[in-house]
Structures are given as C-alpha cells and as structure tokens.
Design goal:
Helices cover about 30% and strands about 20% of the residues. It contains 11 helices and 12 strands. Helix 3 packs across helix 6, helix 5 packs across helix 6 and helix 7 runs antiparallel to helix 10. It starts with a helix and ends in a 9-residue tail after the last helix.
Length: about 350
C-alpha cells in the first residue's frame, strides 16, 4: 500500500510518475524521500521475479540508476502510483459535497470565479499558457477524461484556434495546480486537422446512423468506441463514447462527447464532453449495449460544455482533440490515418 503523502507528491506533478520518481527519491522533500524509500523497499521479491520481460526491458531505458534490481523496484512503484493517482481523481470528482464545490474550487485564487451546477467554470476567466489555465498568480489544469495529465493540450489549442474560448466552460482538475511557472509541461506537439463530414447526409438523416470500433494498434487501450447520429425533428444528436478496458475501470472513466446539430440552420447549438465513471458491474451492463441505447448507467461528470453556436466544420477538430490518441475517431473525422491502423 502506498502512503497517502506519497500519492500526494506525485498527484501534484504534471509529469508521469516514471519520469520523476528518481528526482523525488534523490531531491524531494524529506518525508517524500522517506515514504518513497519505504515503498521501494517494500516491493516483494515475488513481484520482481514475476515482472514481465518487456516491462523489465522498458525499465532499463527509463531510469538513470544502473542497478537492475533498483530499476525494477522503481518501475513497479511508479506503475502503482500511475494507477493510484487517477483513482484518487475519479473518487474526488464523483464524491458529492453537501457544502458547495470541492477542490480545487475552494482555492483563494478562484474566489471570484463562478462555478455552475455541473462544476464548470468559464474558460475565459483564465489566461491560457499551453494547457495551463492561469489566474491570480496560480495555474490550474482542465480535468482530463483519461488518466494522462496532458490529455487536454490539443483540445485547448483547437478551442483557441477556432476562437471558442469565450464560448466554453470547463471543469478543473482537483489534484493538479500550483503557482504560475511551477507546473511544467507545455512541451507536447501533435496537430491533427480533420476534413468536414458529409453534412448534407447528416442534415437529411431519417433514422439513426451508428457504428463501433475496436481499438487499433496506435490507439491507447480501450474496450471499444461507439458513436451514433440520432435525428429528432429539426435536430440531430451526435454521441460518441470510448469505454475503458475492464482492468482499468477503477482508475479510468470513459470519454463521452455529445453534440446537438440544428439541421435547419446548419449549426452546432450544444457541445459537451464528459467522463462517465463505471464500476465493474455497470461497465459489463454498458458493454452489452450501444451508446445510443445505454441510458444513464454510470456517473457522468462534465469536463467542458458550450451552448454557443459553433460552425459544424469545427466539430471534427474538437472531437479529434478530445479523443486524442483514439485513431478510430480521428479517421472517422477525416484525419490522414492509414487504413492499416
């Protein structure tokens, strides 16, 4: 079991645990070094012997220390931390707070920022620096829909590129924030540009259009991704959900996107992204149905929302950015991803 203080030390850092565990061991605060040494020494010999060959080879490339046994112990502790941090984040965003909004909205630098009923704040309340949201000398990050802290970097770039900063509200990461300049990051570079969908076909849709993809070789692991266009009178709903693998259900929710297309005026009138958190039984139930029939199973936590009018051709860029690392979604919206993937 990892000490709570040790999880805290990693949870407030932008970088993945594997990148910083040696730095914390060598130069972290005294209590963190002590807890980390304890965790490293507590790794069982059974775990060391049973470590998979590819993971052992990976550990040799990750760490400066040349001691093979220490490399293995560092790898196993970092792996456990990489599971514990998103589990803590999931627990925080799904916990009900009877006396108002929980962290980070109780931070003094957010005292004058309005938090809505979904726990979202106006994006234009902050100055954007890469994927950091700066205000009053402090930086926050947007809640990631998957375990990786940098998951929203590309979505925020697309919101800025399409002049949608004033039109969107976002949820803040409850764990990751700090004084301006203290959060590293801003070093990711990956641009994906889509082509417009066939909006004439969507405009004239009379019955639901839907599909499902199993993850390809390039995509981050998932159970599957399914989508649907569902027509209703003058509107068509677009819904898309990427389900987490079964063995990651405790630390990872699904990525869920919903858009409303006004086919009379050719406009997106509503767009929101969410995390849907499932337990094992709920995930099994959800797996047996398609997203268009899934109902309200699981707990949905909004990540961002816009109720402003958005050009439909922008939807592809935003969807690809929100589902970053999901190459099935990217290919569907026209990104140049090879068919062999």
């Amino acid at each position: 079991m990892l000490e709570e203080a040790l999880i805290d030390a990693f949870a407030c850092r932008y970088e993945p645990p594997y990148w910083i565990i040696e730095d914390l061991l060598e130069a972290g605060p005294g209590p963190v070094r002590t807890a980390l040494r304890g965790a490293i020494e507590a790794v069982s010999s059974v775990a060391i012997v049973g470590m998979a060959r590819d993971a052992r080879a990976e550990s040799k490339q990750m760490f400066r220390n040349g001691d093979p046994e220490l490399q293995t112990r560092l790898y196993l502790v970092a792996r456990d931390v990489a599971i514990a941090v998103p589990r803590r984040r999931i627990a925080k965003i799904t916990r009900r707070t009877p006396n108002g909004h929980a962290a980070p909205y109780d931070h003094p630098s957010l005292a004058h920022v309005e938090v809505d009923r979904d726990g979202l704040v106006p994006l234009n309340s902050f100055a954007l620096d890469g994927d950091a949201l700066s205000i009053n000398g402090y930086e926050f990050l947007m809640l990631p829909a998957v375990p990786w802290a940098n998951a929203n970097h590309w979505l925020l770039q697309q919101l800025g590129r399409h002049a949608l900063v004033d039109a969107v509200s976002v949820r803040l990461n409850p764990l990751l924030h700090g004084p301006t300049g203290a959060l590293s990051g801003h070093f990711y570079r990956m641009d994906v540009y889509g082509r417009p969908l066939d909006w004439d076909r969507i405009r004239n849709l009379q019955s639901p259009d839907h599909g499902r993809w199993l993850p390809g070789n390039l995509s981050r692991s998932s159970l599957f991704t399914d989508y649907a266009w569902v027509p209703h009178d003058d509107e068509v709903d677009f819904i898309c959900e990427e389900l987490p693998p079964r063995d990651e259900v405790e630390e990872r929710g699904s990525r869920y996107l919903h858009a409303v297309y006004d086919r009379r005026h050719h406009r997106i009138t509503h767009l929101d992204g969410a995390v849907r958190v499932y337990n094992a039984d709920e995930l099994t139930s959800r797996e047996a149905s398609h997203v268009r029939n899934a109902g309200k199973v699981g707990t949905r936590v909004k990540v961002f929302r816009s109720d402003h009018q958005i050009d439909p051709d922008v939807l592809g860029d935003l969807a690809q950015s929100y589902f970053v690392w999901n190459y099935d979604v990217a290919r569907y919206f026209g990104a140049p991803v090879g068919a062999e993937w």
